[in-house]
Design brief:
Distance between the termini: 10 Å
Radius of gyration: 17 Å
Structural class: mainly alpha
Number of strands: 0
Number of helices: 5
Strand content: under 5%
Low-confidence stretches: none
Shape: globular
Length: 137
């Protein structure tokens, strides 16, 4: 299989896993043990602070937009997609350090792990192969 096909497959698979995990998060939240579900409910009822609003609108939302734009760029084999993807991965990883504790179902953790494998494969392909600069490898 050509590297271009592998890259596109990984990008599409990462997108599908990410969107599916976000959608499934709501249904799997009900399957958590009572204590964890109670903790999530208590956290959801806390008032939203100004710092959280600023973090979301100035950091998280633009980074998510950049992330999904970079995936389009990678599918089209555009050099800007490569740089946006690297920037968004580093930025989202750093941002996650400030989000606090999270609780999720084991199946969603599995989705996250597979997504991380896809991310690693994409990074290897765009950093260490000429897949973006050449049309065929």
């Amino acid at each position: 299989m050509h590297l271009i096909k592998v890259l596109r497959l990984l990008v599409v698979f990462e997108f599908i896993l990410t969107v599916t995990a976000v959608i499934l998060n709501f249904s799997f939240e009900e399957k958590l043990p009572v204590d964890l579900k109670t903790w999530i409910d208590v956290q959801a009822e806390l008032p939203i602070t100004n710092n959280e609003i600023i973090t979301f609108f100035l950091l998280a939302a633009p980074l998510l937009l950049i992330y999904f734009s970079s995936m389009i760029g990678l599918l089209l084999l555009k050099p800007w997609g490569k740089y946006l993807y690297i920037f968004s991965m580093i930025s989202l990883s750093v941002l996650s350090l400030f989000l606090g504790p999270t609780v999720e179902h084991a199946i969603l953790t599995l989705f996250g792990d597979i997504t991380s494998i896809c991310t690693g494969g994409i990074l290897v392909l765009i950093l260490f192969t000429p897949v973006i600069t050449k049309k065929s490898v």
